[in-house]
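Q&A log
Question type: sequence-to-structure
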Amino acid sequence: MTLASDRLPQRTWKTIPWALGLTCAGALAMGWPVQAAENSNSAATSGVTQPSSNRQKALARHLKEQGAVVYGAWWCPHCNHQKELFGLEAIDLLPYVECDKDDAGRKQCEKAQVRGYPTWDLKGERRLGVLSLEELEIWSGYRTGSSSNR
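Response status: OK
Response body:
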């Protein structure tokens, strides 16, 4: 039995990385948006553009004070959605651990036995997935005057 890959000239497979490199370079030259490989918690790499409300910033500070931690990865769309729920300024206030930036982050997430992203941990209790601001307020015991203060 002959496979399709057996019929292709060997040099075709060698040109694929070169062609891919040209495609990526072309995308950059054209100014197309490219997902940054930088692995940080900042708005620049998460794609978040909306400013944070006072409620979002206060909740992020409260979560940090309560010892909550959210584990995520820079390439995870769910993690980026979680960050969007907080807005620009509150992102840097979140108790966030980047699990795929460097060895230190990977080891921290491995030690915490993180199995999916985002993972929230609050006083030893885990929640997996994107949590709404309301869910986080209730879970963490945060009291607000109004839930419409977005």
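Response note: The chain has eight helices and four strands.
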